Amino acid sequence: MKNITIVGGGLVGSLLAVFLAKRGHRVNVFERRGDPRRTNVYAGRSINLVVSHRGWTALRAAGVHEAVERIVVPVHARMTHDRDGGLTRLPYSIDGRAIHSVSRAELNKVLLSEAEALPNVHLHFNHQCVEVDLDHARCTFRNDVTGSVASIKADVVFGADGAPSAVRQAMMKGRFTFSQTYIEHDYKEIAFPPNADGTPRMDPNCLHIWPRRLFMMMGLANQDGGFTGTLFMPHEGEFSFDTIKDEQDLLRFFEAHFKDAIPLLPDLAEQYFRNPQSSLAIIRCSPWTHRDKVALIGDAAHAIVPFYGEGMNAGYEDCKVLNDLLNAHGDDNWGTVLDAYHKARKPNGDAIADLSLRNFVEMRDLVADPRFILRKKIEGRLQARHPDKWLPLYSQVKFSDIAYADAWNEGLRHDRIMEQVLALPGIEERWESDEVERSALELLDTAR
Ligand SMILES: Cc1cc2nc3c(=O)[nH]c(=O)nc-3n(C[C@H](O)[C@H](O)[C@H](O)COP(=O)(O)OP(=O)(O)OC[C@H]3O[C@@H](n4cnc5c(N)ncnc54)[C@H](O)[C@@H]3O)c2cc1C
Which of the four CATH numbers 3.50.50.60, 3.40.50.1480, 3.40.190.10, 3.30.1360.40 does domain 3-72+104-179+283-359 have? Predict the structure, then answer.
């Protein structure tokens, strides 16, 4: 059995600790921040997440799904809020399947407790990794409370330290390909409180979106009846965080664009000016591993924009695939396992980065577009009548284990087919006809 260092005790590091400890390895997790179960390290930046099918697959494989099931809220549909407060509900699947909303802070706490309950896991908070000797799997940590420094040697090191990864920084000193692309949008958390009696003020089983093309807001339910909202806007320009300087600017902006949300946000201004504004970047890098000694996992390997709600799910799938590879090759064969892990996951990390950018456009612009809604209806009908032939891209990503790279290619093929279907004369009136269905299926057989 190996001594394993995991740098980062966030969403992915904590799950990875469970997987590896259950295999019998001795696992030490070093986390830069304090223990979220004892201090409020997530204040104003918790942001709700959705757990999707592949996230659940990994949680189940690690045996922690029951603990997570207790803290989620099922989400069956998107609820679009237009400028006049009009609502459109669009189910995520034709068979009532749900994604699940969860508070990042609560999820992290649950997984840390699951990891800590295993006798061979040791959690070290306030330990920031400041240096990594890749060849010897040795990390140097600074205790941010006491100021002391310790050097820890392991057999294998995992960098689960998120987008700013110190482990990845160390790998960059060698032959390493890296890119980091900021998008123009930043985000800010805005919490929607419940009614005084604890009931929700919006449908809790929907992901609420206010799409406004250049910017958007979304809200996901919490178990206490409230919602965690996120405002996405360019950091500068005409409609941007930069232009909102005071309470009057803010109210004018919300009056013009999110009017129906104002009564739901009694302390909007206080929250807006208190909560931090954060940036969003896509990180691609290669290789994710260094010999049999070091591997990147989760956002450290593939930070993506959050518009498919898949960053954490992708990180959880990394953990599951790694565990499967250990099953296949054995726990003493780390060179082979880490090599296979990189080869299996890197194309999928790239694909989910592309898919997430694509979904940004969909959420921001298209969910308010009648042609897009018509396409969704046609696809829903095709899926209902020919589930073996047509699985919409969203379902492939959120409700299946299909590799992201395969989903991306199939999604592009669907685009080509649906472009032709939507161009059929009178499609608005006859989208439910057998003729339209036949045309789509014929195209499916021929379009490559
Ligand atoms: C607004 C927003 C919404 C999102 N929504 C979703 C969603 O709905 N569904 C989804 O699947 N994903 C979502 N994501 C993505 C998700 O948050 C990330 O993919 C996920 O947090 C990655 O987990 P991680 O453990 O790899 O990294 P992180 O969560 O960033 O955790 C890394 C940990 O490492 C620690 N750390 C960092 N540096 C060091 C160091 N030098 N030494 C020691 N510790 C260190 C950090 O303190 C942190 O605890 C969203 C992201 C954002 C920004």
Answer: 3.50.50.60
* Nearest one of 189, 244, 198, 242 to 219, comparing CA atoms: 189
SS3 260: helix
Test site for ligand 1: of 282, 312, 318, 394, most ligand atoms within 8 A of the Cβ: 312
How far is Cα 313 from Cα 326, in angstroms, rounded to an integer? 20
Kindly give, in sequence order, each residue whose CB lies less than 8 Å from that of residue 318, ignoring residues fewer than 6 positions away.
12, 297, 298, 301, 341, 345
pLDDT digit string (tens) for 115-159? 999 999 999 999 999 999 999 999 999 998 999 999 999 999 999
For 39, 90, 104, 282, 306, the CA distances from 72, given in Å and listed in that order, are 22, 21, 11, 27, 19
Q: Is 3 in the pocket of ligand 1 (CB under 6 A)?
A: no
Helices assigned H by DSSP within 41-151 = 53-62, 65-69, 104-116
Residue to probe by mutation, ligand 1, list 16, 32, 404, most atoms within 8 Å of CB: 32
Q: For the chain, what are the domain ranges?
A: 3-72+104-179+283-359, 180-279, 369-446
The string of pLDDT tens digits covering residues 325-341 is 999 999 999 999 999 99
Give the closest residue (by CA) to ligand 1 atom 37: 161
From residue 422, alpha-carbon distances to 353, 374, 429, 433 in Å are 27, 8, 11, 13
Phi then psi for 162, rounded to 5 degrees? 70, -170
